[in-house]
């Protein structure tokens, strides 16, 4: 059978007018671009062939063999192996980028394999040309499915007649079969991996996987969006600010942690997640852990609003009763104290009555805060000369500031003619609340700045301090009535302020860094357009 193929090709060589004494040489080479395109198309085949081929070279221990891989057109796309054999091949111009053509090379196992799709060997005198009588060539076909259809070609093993053995072809056939199996397995694995990624990437939950040393192995884009820290495969999960301690704990003790509320803060956004950290075991030994993050920000904010409104309604009832019960007697007590203070008194009594009066003012303000929280009065809008107004507020607070050894910096970018339409006494209350907080958060000798700017028909009043700052977690709570970190605080100052500004159709924003300071921005429309119904 084999002889028939050889005889057929030999006949053709004679017909081409070839002389056995000629030295054959390939003349056609493809462009570098074409070669690289084929290399990319056959990349997985080339990789696996190289792996198996190099193993085979080692097994053949000392025999000089070299491998050549061609595509379905006989284009040499890869060659590796013994240097001397490859040099001999390149003398015939058989090298990467050359096209094997029968008219140029004569009898060649690779071309017969390509034509008849069978394993074939040409040994010594089988070749047409005398120069090839010292060499042997075994060739096997391959046919491997790829992304763009089936890729066909050949793998050839070239050697010298001295190192030739009949086992070599069997070995090559075996190698091609193993290569096919390996590629199939790779494809299945890849498909499973793609499926896994598709599933993980389409989940609404963030997934982050770490090995037993805590090194990040994989994560999906949801996790990437939730976690503000930079995360990449290969880094330690223990360094992730909010999740690190959880991973450490689960990997250390193998215990799953469920439903942990984790707060992520990044660039002004606050994301709340429920995190499960689940250990991964294999044969009872911990292999790593993964975090599952469910974004519950919306639900959390809704809950917070409900808490606030529940508190508000409770305050409402309480305040209504309190206002009646306390305000009236308080007014008369303050009146009587005032009458007594106007009489001639000994210095001690006058001083004590001064204290009594101060404390009564505090109680009265507290009651007013409650009343504002329960039923904020509708703002009475009047024109306010901004700079004069700000001066009057700061003058009023000067005593408080002096008590804490704090100085005010006035940084007005508003003009003397600029007018704001608003309820002066309510806005004054807001500024006093925020200035008071700033003064209380600052250290002696520090400054609190009040800045005013007008932009897009809005006035912005910025009050900044270099004080203690507010933690990201507390920042989400400062609007809540009764939230306070102070021993004697009521936690009403800011919640009242937010309400008043909201009723004025304005907004308050806060920027704060723990240990560095806080900046409150109060933005109000100059025109004083109010919300239809204050809340
Ligand atoms: N400038 C600031 N620097 C640091 N923390 C602040 C600042 N402003 C507000 N806070 C924090 O916000 C909390 C709530 O402030 P808020 O004014 O509502 O209540 P309070 O000051 O505690 O009590 P009060 O009702 O007497 O004003 C404070 O307890 C404090 O923790
Ligand atoms: Mg306060």
TrEMBL record:
Give the Gene Ontology MF terms in alphabetical order: ATP binding; phosphorelay sensor kinase activity
Keyword Transcription listed: no
Q: Give the EC number(s) under which this enzyme is classified.
A: 2.7.13.3
EC class? transferase
Q: Which PANTHER family match?
A: PEROXIDE STRESS-ACTIVATED HISTIDINE KINASE MAK3, SENSOR HISTIDINE KINASE
Q: Keywords in alphabetical order, please.
A: ATP-binding, Kinase, Nucleotide-binding, Phosphoprotein, Transferase, Two-component regulatory system
Which Pfam families does the entry mention? Answer: HATPase_c, HisKA
Q: Which residues form the Histidine kinase domain?
A: 321-528
Q: What is this protein called?
A: histidine kinase
- Name the catalysed reactions: ATP + protein L-histidine = ADP + protein N-phospho-L-histidine
> What is the species listed in this Swiss-Prot or TrEMBL entry?
Paenibacillus rhizosphaerae
Alphabetical list of InterPro entries matching this protein: GAF-like_dom_sf, HATPase_C_sf, HATPase_dom, His_kinase_dom, HisK_dim/P_dom, HisK_dim/P_sf, PAS-like_dom_sf, Sig_transdc_His_kin-like_C
Record keywords: Nucleotide-binding included? Answer: yes
């Amino acid at each position: 059978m084999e002889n028939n193929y050889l005889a057929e090709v030999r006949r053709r060589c004679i017909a081409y007018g070839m002389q056995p004494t000629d030295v054959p040489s390939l003349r056609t080479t493809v462009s570098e671009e074409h070669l690289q395109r084929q290399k990319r198309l056959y990349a997985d085949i080339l990789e696996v062939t190289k792996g198996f081929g190099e193993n085979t070279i080692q097994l053949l221990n000392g025999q000089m063999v070299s491998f050549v891989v061609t595509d379905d057109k006989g284009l040499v796309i890869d060659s590796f192996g013994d240097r001397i054999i490859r040099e001999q091949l390149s003398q015939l111009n058989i090298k990467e980028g050359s096209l094997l053509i029968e008219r140029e090379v004569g009898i060649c196992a690779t071309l017969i394999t390509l034509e008849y799709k069978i394993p074939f060997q040409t040994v010594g005198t089988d070749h047409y040309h005398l120069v090839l009588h010292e060499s042997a060539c075994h060739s096997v076909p391959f046919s491997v499915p790829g992304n763009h259809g089936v890729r066909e070609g050949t793998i050839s093993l070239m050697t010298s007649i001295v190192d030739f053995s009949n086992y070599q072809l069997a070995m090559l056939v075996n190698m091609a079969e193993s290569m096919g199996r390996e590629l199939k397995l790779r494809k299945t694995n890849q498909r499973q991996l793609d499926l896994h990624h598709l599933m993980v990437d389409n989940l609404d939950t963030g997934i982050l996987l770490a090995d037993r040393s805590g090194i990040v192995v994989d994560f999906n884009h949801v996790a990437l969006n939730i976690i503000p820290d930079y995360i990449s495969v290969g880094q330690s999960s223990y360094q992730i600010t909010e999740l690190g301690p959880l991973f450490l704990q689960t990997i250390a003790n193998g215990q799953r942690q469920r439903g942990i509320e984790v707060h992520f803060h990044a660039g002004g956004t606050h994301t709340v997640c429920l995190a499960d950290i689940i250990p991964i075991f294999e044969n009872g030994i911990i292999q790593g852990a993964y975090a599952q993050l469910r974004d519950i920000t919306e639900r959390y904010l809704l809950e917070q609003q409900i808490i606030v409104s529940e508190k508000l309604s409770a305050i409402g009832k309480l305040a209504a009763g309190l206002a009646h019960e306390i305000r009236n007697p308080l007014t008369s007590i303050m009146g009587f104290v005032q009458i007594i203070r106007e009489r001639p008194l000994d210095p001690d009594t006058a001083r004590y009555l001064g204290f009594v009066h101060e404390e009564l003012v505090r109680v009265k303000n507290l009651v007013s805060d409650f009343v504002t929280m329960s039923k904020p009065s509708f703002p009475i809008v009047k024109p306010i000369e901004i700079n004069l107004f700000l001066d009057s507020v700061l003058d009023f607070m000067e005593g408080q500031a002096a008590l804490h050894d704090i100085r005010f910096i006035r940084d007005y970018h508003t003009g003397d003619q600029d007018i704001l339409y608003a309820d002066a006494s309510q806005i004054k209350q807001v500024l006093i609340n925020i200035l008071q907080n700033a003064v209380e958060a600052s250290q002696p000798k520090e400054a609190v700045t009040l800045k005013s700017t007008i932009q897009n028909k809005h006035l912005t009043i910025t009050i900044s301090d270099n004080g203690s700052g507010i933690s990201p977690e507390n920042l989400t709570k400062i609007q809540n009535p009764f939230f306070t970190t102070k021993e004697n605080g009521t936690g009403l100052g800011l919640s009242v302020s937010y309400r008043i500004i909201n009723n004025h159709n304005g907004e308050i924003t806060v920027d704060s860094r723990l240990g560095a300071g806080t900046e409150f921005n109060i933005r109000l429309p100059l025109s004083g357009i109010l919300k239809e119904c204050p809340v």
